[in-house]
Specification:
alpha/beta; Peroxisomal Thiolase, Chain A, domain 1; 2 domains; four-stranded mixed sheet; 10 helices; 13 strands; 25% strand
Length: 328
Amino acid sequence: MGVEIVGLGKCLPEKVVTNDDISDLVDTDHTWIIERTGIEQRHVATVETGVDLACGAGEEALRGIDRDSIGLVLVATVTPDAMVPVTSAQVKRRLGLENAVAFDINAACSGFMYGLWNAEALMKNGAMPGSNTMEIKRALVIGVERLSRITNWEERSSCILFGDGAGAAVLENRPGSSGILATYLKNYDDERGVLTCGKEYHKIPFWQDEIQPQHLALRGKAVFKFAVNSIEEVTMAALEKAGLTLDDIDWFVPHQANGRIMIAAAQRLNQPIEKFQISINKSANVSSASIPMALYDLSKTGKMEKGDKIAVMGFGGGLSAAAAIIEW
């Protein structure tokens, strides 16, 4: 039994924030940002909620698909609109996915990859408790972020990196097909705190906790080293599970964290950068949304053909990393 991607969607906020706009906030300029990140602009939600973005991407991914056949809605996010109800439950309700079980996960920038892995496993192992169907025929997996809400807009090295948006994929059980050939995930202990974000809670009279600022914080050089090393490790492990080599891969779709990271990863894997989907220039780093958004962008180029093999790679806080090999 194969689990294939049969629909993709993407949704971006209307407001575009250029590098020149960023230079009005901190001491930087367009050239400095481009040279260090490859980012030209990012989208920032001003009126759109996270649920709005998730549903926009989901609507597009579901185009032409029977909504009653969706048995699972899984949303990966680090920036939910609310703690309860979870984002997936709100998406399920708004999109009218009556037969679906819904839950959220948080694996930082690896979130979509962990969601893909969860969905595939559940689809291959039969019915979910509470599902009205005998098995999960189709699943909707979404990555959505409003990173602008946890970005420190006074910190030059980090505020240039992040944006908002959503990407979605519909997975389908197709007996006899290939689809997802192999997946490999790994967690690494972040002993030095190279990538963190605190959580602000209302203070209560009994607390002795220190206040944690709810801002993304990263140690750039350490993140760069981890990203390049982990991309190589999880990609090679996934390829080994699939019985393939790097030269069998037609397209690489990495997490869009930084243009320099993708160039370094291509060099480490000894693969031409032309085989890498690069979308960061127009949308920046959108954490768990970046991979499905980049997959969507690649699909719209018309370059992918039936039977192409794609390596999809994510890495992020935790620390976490994952790769999947997919036959299109």
